[in-house]
Design brief:
Keywords: Membrane, Transmembrane, Transmembrane helix. With 158 residues, the chain is mostly helical. The chain has one domain. Helices cover 78% and strands 0% of the residues.
Length: 158
C-alpha cells in the first residue's frame, strides 16, 4: 500500500481535491516530483473526482443550512455568482456543455464549478456526475500533454 500511495501520491491526491487547484495544479506538481505521467494522471483524476458525488448529493441540504447564517449566506452567494458566469454554456449545450466546462483548463472551470452549475440547473445527479467525470478525464489529458510539452520545451534550453 505504501508503494501505491507514497507521500507524493498522497499530496497530489489532496491537491487535486481542492477547489482552486484541482488536477490543473496537482498533475504538474506530481510530474515535477518525479511521478510517471500515467501515475500522475490517475492519482490527479481520482482525487479530482472524489469530492464530486458527495457534493452533488449534499449540495441542496448544505445550501439550505448555509443561507441561515450571514457568513454562510455570503459565502454561498459569492460561490453561486461565480458559477452563474459559466451557466450559459451548460444551459445551451446540456450534457456536452457540462463536459466542456469541466474539461477546459481555465480559471473558474473544473469539477467544483461543474458541480455548482449542475446544481443551479437542477440536473439529474447521474447525468451531472457522468459529465463531470468525463470532463475531468479530458482535462487531465489536456493538462498532462501541456505539462509534458512544457517540460520538454524547457529541456531544449538547459
Amino acid at each position: 500500500m505504501s508503494s501505491l500511495l507514497g507521500r507524493t501520491e498522497a499530496l497530489t491526491f489532496f491537491i487535486s481535491m481542492l477547489p482552486i487547484s484541482e488536477l490543473r495544479g496537482a498533475l504538474p506538481f506530481a510530474l515535477s516530483q518525479g511521478l510517471s505521467p500515467l501515475k500522475a494522471y490517475l492519482v490527479s483524476v481520482a482525487g479530482n473526482i472524489l469530492p464530486v458525488l458527495p457534493l452533488l448529493l449534499l449540495l441542496r441540504g448544505l445550501s439550505a443550512f448555509l443561507v441561515r447564517y450571514r457568513i454562510g449566506a455570503a459565502f454561498f452567494n459569492w460561490t453561486m455568482e461565480r458559477a452563474k458566469k459559466r451557466e450559459d454554456l451548460v444551459r445551451r449545450y446540456g450534457f456536452g456543455g457540462l463536459i466542456l466546462l469541466v474539461a477546459i483548463p481555465l480559471p473558474i472551470t473544473g469539477a467544483w464549478t461543474g458541480t455548482l452549475v449542475s446544481f443551479l440547473l437542477s440536473m439529474q445527479i447521474k447525468y451531472a456526475f457522468a459529465a463531470i467525470c468525463i470532463g475531468v478525464g479530458l482535462a487531465g489529458i489536456i493538462v498532462l500533454l501541456a505539462s509534458l510539452g512544457i517540460i520538454e520545451g524547457v529541456k531544449i534550453f538547459t
